[in-house]
Design a protein that fits this description.
This protein is an all-alpha fold and 229 residues long. The protein is built from 14 helices and no strands. α7 packs antiparallel against α8 and α9 runs antiparallel to α10. The chain has 2 domains: 109 residues, Tetratricopeptide repeat domain (Serine Threonine Protein Phosphatase 5, Tetratricopeptide repeat, Alpha Horseshoe); 96 residues, no CATH class.
């Protein structure tokens, strides 16, 4: 039903089947289960922005549909709800506990971006529901990096260069920076250049902020994301 609905909406089965596509997608949503869990997410995307003459923009209902899909194990829906509760999107309140809950659901299903969002939460903590834990932050970043997520590769390089949540290791940091730089990450290229300069006459700490400057408890999550994410 999901595939038929999407085919009607995309025009793959001919023109003028728009309403039929919506009908099948709604029926698929009503029948969604853990194996076939994408229909609520797809329908939620339509309500998030509005679609055609029949589906009006309704962000609250989109959030309901994403939540339904997330409960059935849809990783992208879980990630979107993690974002919603972190930033107050889709008419959702800012709620660190629910944000961490949904990001964790997405991360456990292999969603690399959600892993990095968990990394960010663990870097700063969210008392009283989540204690700051740099080692846990590093572990989530590394899991994401091993899935070739470029932002995570840079972050792991930075963590290992500075010794954040792990043993400080400039050689390993260089390996991760090279991976990120090869994928086009400009910050990784800058760190590699700084390390080369340090090798020729200084130390990496001369050209990068010391760990304490990045990890003050009073610093905001957004500030740390600028430095590491």
């Amino acid at each position: 039903m999901t595939r038929l609905g999407k085919a009607c909406l995309s025009g793959d089965l001919g023109e003028n089947r728009y309403r039929e596509g919506i009908k099948w997608l709604k029926r698929a949503t009503e029948s969604a289960d853990a194996m076939y869990n994408s229909a609520p997410y797809q329908l939620g995307l339509m309500y998030e922005t509005g679609y055609g003459d029949d589906i009006f923009k309704d962000e609250s209902y989109a959030a309901e549909l994403f939540t339904e899909a997330a409960g059935l194990g849809h990783p992208e829906a879980s990630y979107r709800m993690g974002e919603a509760y972190e930033h107050g999107k889709l008419n959702c309140p800012r709620d660190p506990a629910l944000s961490v809950h949904f990001y964790t659901g997405a991360a456990e299903h292999g969603h690399a971006a959600a892993m990095m969002c968990l990394c960010a939460w663990y870097l700063v903590g969210a008392e009283p529901i989540l204690e700051k834990d740099e080692e846990e932050a590093y572990e989530w970043a590394r899991r994401s990096a091993e899935l070739d997520y470029v932002k995570a590769q840079y972050a792991v390089g930075y963590f290992t260069e500075m010794g954040i949540g792990c043993r400080r290791d400039i050689l390993e940091a260089n390996v991760w920076y090279v991976k990120a730089a090869d994928a086009g990450d400009e910050r990784a290229k800058q760190r590699l250049q700084a390390i080369r300069l340090a090798v020729s006459g200084g130390t990496p700490m001369d050209v990068a902020p010391p760990k304490n400057a990045k990890m003050r408890k009073s610093q905001s999550k957004e500030d740390k994301e600028c430095a590491v994410m």
